[in-house]
Amino acid sequence: MAMSGGGGGIGELLKTTLADGLMTFLFVFCVSTLGPLTSLILASPLYDSLITFLKSVTPPPNLIVTTLILFVFLLILTTIASLLGGASFNPTSTIAFHTAGFKPNSLISMSLRFPAQALGAVAGAVSITSLMPVPYNQMLPGPRLKVDMHIGGFAECVLTFLVCFGILWIVTRGPNNPVFKVAMISLTTVTLVISGSKYTGPAMNPANAYAWAYVNNHHNTWEHLYVYWMCPFIGSILAAWVFRFIFPPPPTKTKKA
């Protein structure tokens, strides 16, 4: 998942902010189609041979198809993000890379980028909701809390910690091939989504969670702020701290006078 620094001047900062909004719009719009697309592929007679093969392997076919679709989406999105200068579509990954020291951002930069990501996510959720055919609307609920608020907050914190730590390792210490990086991020994301599905959805992305909370008219509640914003941010910061502790940056060389 692409990350970006804060930029040097006002023009660069505005460019990064707009790029973040656009990328988050595309991310929410595309990822929200995972359920309907998986259903269509598995139900299509054109894929009988593929389904027969998938049923012979251990993971359920729907998980394999969903992972493959997510891989394609992330590959396209990260390519676009790179062309836009390294835009981000997840506030927690922006925080994690900033805290780990890889992509420093100023407070002004983050105060502009995070609202832009939230607005882009809302636009994506509203757009896909209005365009999605009626039979598939029930597949667009977005993340929602299914347990006690504190249990849900703890779950989002742990899941975001794991996904941010995983992305930090994959991006900075994983394979050099960007396709392999995206494949690993896709597998990590799907695994954690399945693990957290009975708790919070999950989101692991405050902007995405805010978008669907807005669509369902509970975006301005303390529960939403606590579970889907505060706890994920704590998880991402902890992930960055632990990553820096395990993989400390090389010491800076001082020039002798």
From TrEMBL:
Species of origin: Zostera marina (Eelgrass)
Pfam families: MIP (PF00230)
Keyword set includes Transport: yes
Record GO terms (molecular function): water channel activity
Principal location: membrane
Protein family according to the UniProt entry: Belongs to the MIP/aquaporin (TC 1.A.8) family. SIP (TC 1.A.8.10) subfamily.
Cell compartment(s), UniProt: Membrane
Topology of this chain in the membrane: Multi-pass membrane protein
InterPro entries: Aquaporin-like, MIP, SIP1-1/2-like
Name of the protein in its database record: Aquaporin-like superfamily protein
Keyword Transmembrane helix: yes
Gene Ontology cellular component terms for the protein in this record: membrane
Transmembrane spans: 21-43, 63-89, 110-131, 151-171, 178-196, 226-247
Top-rank taxon: Eukaryota
Keyword vocabulary terms for this entry: Membrane, Repeat, Transmembrane, Transmembrane helix, Transport
